[in-house]
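Quick review question:
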C-alpha cells in the first residue's frame, strides 16, 4: 500500500525525495511493477501514442582514448582489432538506412581524436546536405564547448552522453582518475545550452551501484530534464577489469524505465540493445514498461562484432537495420507500430 502511494505521488508530482526513491526501489515487487508499468504505458500513450521511433546506429569508430573499467573498447584492451569508417562508408550506411525508412542517424564511437573537429564537421555537413529531413545525433563523448558548437552549427541536432552515475565516489570506481564526473555534467549542461536535444542515462546494475546511487541518478535526471534517457543493464565484457562482475538485471532496468516515464512524461526512452541482449523479450518488455524508441544497428556488418562494448552484444536480426521487418512484426505483436518519423522529443 505504502509503495503504491509513492507511485501515485510520483505520477501526481513527477518528483520524489531521495528517501522516497530509496524506499520505492528497495520495496519493489512484481505486483508493484505491474502497477507502475500500466501507468507508464498510459502516460506514454497520451504523449507519443503507440508509435515507436527508430534510430539508425552507426558505430563509426572503436578507437578510444579512455579506459573506462566496464567498456570493451577501452584503450587498455590491446587485443581488440580497431576500425574506423571513412566518410564514404558512413554516408553509405545513411543511404541504406534512409531507404529502409530511418530519419535519424546516430554517429556513435569511442573518443577517437583521429576524427578532428575538421573531419567531424565535414562528415556532419555532408550528412546534413544529403539528408535535410533527417536528425543527426552524435555520441562521441566529452569535448570542448566550442567543438560541440561547431557540430551544432554544421547541422547536428542531438547528443547522447550518459552521465553513468551521479555519485562522485561511485563514478571514481567505474573510471580511472583522469575522468571526472563534474566535467561530464558540465558537458551535458553545455550541450543543452547550445540547443542540442540531449540524452543522458546510466548502466543499471553497474558494479557497486546501490539504491542510494540510483536515487541520486533520478534526482540528477530530474534536474537536468533531458530530452532522452538511455538506460540499459551493465553487462560484463571479458577483456575488461569488470569481467567477473555480475550483469544488471532485466527486472530493475524495466522498473527504472517505468519510474522515468512517470517522472519525465515526455522524455524519449529507448528500449536498449543491452536489454535485448540479457533477455530475448527484453526489447518488448522495455516498450511495455514505458519505452518508445529503438536503435537498430546500421553499421557495416563486418564491423559490428568489433564494437564489443560488452559480451554477446546483439547486432543482427531484429537488432539490425536490415532486420527492420522483424522488428516491425515484433512491435505489432504487442500493439505498437514502428514509424518513419524523425521522432523529436516533446520535452521543451
Ligand atoms: N564514448 C562515448 C561516450 O562515452 O559517451 C560513446 C560510446 S560509449 C561506448 C556508449 C555507452 O556504452 C556508454 O555510455 C556506456 O553506458 C555503455 N557501455 C559501455 N560498456 C558497457 C557495458 N559493459 N555494459 C553496458 N553498457 C556499456
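Suggested answer, residue by residue:
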Amino acid at each position: 500500500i505504502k509503495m503504491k502511494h509513492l507511485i501515485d505521488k510520483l505520477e501526481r508530482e513527477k518528483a520524489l525525495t531521495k528517501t522516497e526513491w530509496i524506499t520505492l526501489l528497495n520495496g519493489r515487487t512484481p505486483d508493484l511493477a505491474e502497477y507502475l508499468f500500466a501507468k507508464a504505458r498510459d502516460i506514454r500513450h497520451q504523449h507519443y501514442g503507440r508509435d515507436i521511433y527508430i534510430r539508425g546506429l552507426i558505430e563509426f569508430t572503436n578507437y578510444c582514448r579512455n579506459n573506462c573499467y566496464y567498456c570493451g573498447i577501452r584503450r587498455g584492451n590491446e587485443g581488440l582489432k580497431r576500425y574506423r569508417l571513412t566518410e564514404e562508408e558512413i554516408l553509405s550506411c545513411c543511404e541504406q538506412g534512409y531507404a529502409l525508412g530511418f530519419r535519424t542517424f546516430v554517429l556513435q564511437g569511442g573518443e577517437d581524436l583521429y576524427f578532428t573537429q575538421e573531419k567531424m564537421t565535414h562528415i556532419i555537413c555532408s550528412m546534413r546536405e544529403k539528408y535535410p529531413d533527417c536528425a543527426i545525433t552524435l555520441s562521441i563523448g566529452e569535448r570542448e564547448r566550442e567543438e560541440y558548437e561547431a557540430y551544432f552549427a554544421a547541422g547536428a541536432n542531438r547528443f547522447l552522453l550518459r552521465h553513468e552515475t551521479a555519485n562522485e565516489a561511485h563514478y571514481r570506481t567505474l573510471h580511472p582518475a583522469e575522468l571526472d564526473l563534474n566535467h561530464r555534467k558540465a558537458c551535458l549542461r553545455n550541450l543543452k545550452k547550445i540547443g542540442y536535444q540531449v540524452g543522458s542515462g546510466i548502466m543499471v546494475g553497474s558494479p557497486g551501484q546501490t539504491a542510494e546511487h540510483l536515487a541520486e541518478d533520478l534526482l540528477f535526471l530530474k534536474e537536468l530534464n533531458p530530452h532522452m534517457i538511455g538506460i540499459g543493464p551493465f553487462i560484463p565484457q571479458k577483456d575488461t577489469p569488470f569481467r567477473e562482475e555480475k550483469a544488471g538485471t532485466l527486472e530493475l532496468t524495466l522498473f527504472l524505465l517505468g519510474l522515468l516515464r512517470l517522472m519525465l512524461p515526455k522524455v524519449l526512452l529507448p528500449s536498449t540493445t543491452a536489454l535485448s541482449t540479457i533477455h530475448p523479450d527484453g526489447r518488448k518488455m522495455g516498450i511495455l514498461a514505458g519505452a518508445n524508441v529503438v536503435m537498430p544497428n546500421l553499421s557495416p556488418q563486418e564491423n559490428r562484432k568489433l564494437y564489443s562494448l560488452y559480451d554477446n552484444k546483439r547486432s543482427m536480426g531484429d537488432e539490425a537495420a536490415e532486420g527492420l521487418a522483424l522488428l516491425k512484426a515484433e512491435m505489432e505483436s504487442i500493439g505498437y507500430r514502428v514509424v518513419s518519423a524523425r521522432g523529436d522529443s516533446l520535452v521543451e
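Why it works: The two ends are 34 Å apart (CA to CA). The mean pLDDT is 98.
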